[in-house]
Amino acid sequence: MKSKALRILSLALVLVLGLTLFAGCQEQTDSATGFKAGTYEGSSKGFGGDITAKVTLSATAIDAIEVIADGETPEIGGTAIASLTDEILAKQTTAVEAIAGATVSSVAFIDAVNAALTSAGVDPASLKGTDAADSPKEDKTLDVDVVVIGGGGAGMTAAITAKQAGLNVIIVEKMSMLGGNTVKATGGMNAAETHYQKEQNVSDTVDTFVSDTMTGGYDINNSELVNILAKESSGAIDWLDSIGAPLPKISTSGGATNKRLHAPEDGSAVGPYLLNAFSEQIKALEIPVYFDTKAETILTDDTGAVIGITATGKDGNYTINSKLVILATGGFGSNEEMYTKYKPELKGFVTTNTPGATGDGIVMAEAVGASLVDIEQIQIHPTVEQTTSIMVTESVRGNGAILVNKTGERFIDEMQTRDKVSAAVIAQEEGYAYIIFDQKLREGLGAIESYVKSNIVSQGETIEDLAKAIEVDPATLTATLEAWNKAVADKSDAAFGRTTAMDVPLAQGPYYAIKIAPGVHHTMGGVRINESAQVLNANGDVIPGLLACGEVTGGIHGGNRLGGNAVADIVVFGRIAGKTAAEALK
Ligand code: ADP
Description:
Blueprint: H1 2-28, E1 38-45, E2 50-57, E3 62-68, H2 74-91, H3 103-119, E4 140-149, H4 153-164, E5 169-172, E6 189-190, H5 195-199, H6 206-216, H7 223-231, H8 233-242, E7 249-251, E8 261-263, H9 270-284, E9 289-290, E10 294-300, E11 306-313, E12 316-327, H10 336-342, H11 360-367, E13 372-373, E14 378-385, E15 390-391, H12 394-398, E16 402-404, H13 418-427, E17 433-438, H14 439-444, H15 447-453, E18 458-460, H16 463-469, H17 474-490, E19 511-523, E20 526-528, E21 534-536, E22 542-548, E23 553-554, H18 565-584
Parallel strand pairs: 4-5, 4-12, 5-9, 12-22, 20-23
Antiparallel strand pairs: 1-2, 2-3, 6-8, 7-8, 10-11, 11-12, 13-20, 14-15, 14-19, 16-17, 17-19, 18-19, 21-22
Helix pairs in contact: 2-3, 4-9, 4-18, 6-7, 16-17
Adenosine-5'-diphosphate (ADP) binds next to helix 4, strand 10 and helix 11.
């Protein structure tokens, strides 16, 4: 009897305790937001696997979002997710737009956050956000020293340099994230006579860098600009050291006589790596970035001097009065109408470019009298996976990979310049090829992991297995690899005369292949500038107040850009534009 009474009492106590605890939880739910403080998880399918979002709520706000998304390509998906995280936290709603160029990753990420919120008992649709989308548009006027148009590598470098010199600088960026095409730079940055080369006993000279770049560009490059590029490259590497973005790993890139491609130590893709460091600087220096704000026109006074820009933003139109304008809008590789106007044979080619690369800066500059140079010089990159437009970095060949055609045979010195390799791929039966590498090479190059996660890599434990996987004759592929490994051992490629990036054989399984064909990659031509990054008119005179740097400019790369020279271009000439601005406004 007694024990039964005790059992009832304890059951009652458990119930009371349980109800109390339940009531306690209820108490933590904020009546206004419906938020219950805690961390909640939700998942969704992304580009290369599941994206899981861990969302931390306080009683009144979304406090933090942590993402586990190993499968997203860091250069695109990762950057988009970082940008959306900031936006959701700032606006306190998941009613944000997917980032153009990274739609799959964006949508999956937003879904994952919504799933986490739902698991917290919050209806995502109820989050109206702090930034009422229907707030009236307003015209705004800003007054600054310098407005930088475009937040890719060149614009960010220029803005940081100008701000470091004490100028009042802003960036306008038409997309919802920084990065532009720079996000896609995977290989590295060419630089000569750097302290890293000296420390690693790599002999190289500024003169060889100049002559390689001129030869690679068919000598139509502006040699004065090329000289500056090469001469300032070592200082640019030092500057990157100073902002926490060292590039100590050195390898060879196509068309380079010596090892001068500088990359991050851990083999990660150079573009996202630099952009991270630049973003940190932009935050630390408090440089305002106007996202979703598209520059429309460059304003001039009666004398033709540049005095600012107009821009359209989500929240209204801007007139930005500035002492100087730095044009850093990138190229036009995503504007098929524009590139086929200059090079009709590119009709129907895929592009490796991000959606913002539409040539706006070239059109705006022309309207104020800028002259253009080499505008019809458009580079196709030889190794682009065609279903995803993912560009397979030159570093894969630079670290020892070879190309084979559909019969499993090599057909060119893979380290030739991009235009030659592209032409050779197009000349193969059905116009495609496979880039072949082994486990050792995979382990030495971080970029490959993103290709694997994007499902563009075929593999086989043995060469025969790989051959079967890509439907190439196993005996031929085996013979090709044997011949290649002998060439590596002999340091002599009798078949195609390759002399670089043949230090290590392809001999450690598993073996890998990516099917590739060329795609539009870089627009070498653009706005004519002088050595100080000032824009020139048809008479070769400076247009007062207008500077330009990066892919929007022409003349540096001539008829063909060498791999590793785009990053050199943005850092060297971005810094020059920033310094010229500082000098002018001193
Ligand atoms: P670069 O390598 O020369 O820095 P990127 O392609 O990396 O060139 O960056 C150029 C940036 O300029 C991109 O982020 C692109 O979205 C931005 N952009 C292009 N046109 C405009 C415009 N009209 N207004 C604002 N930003 C622009």
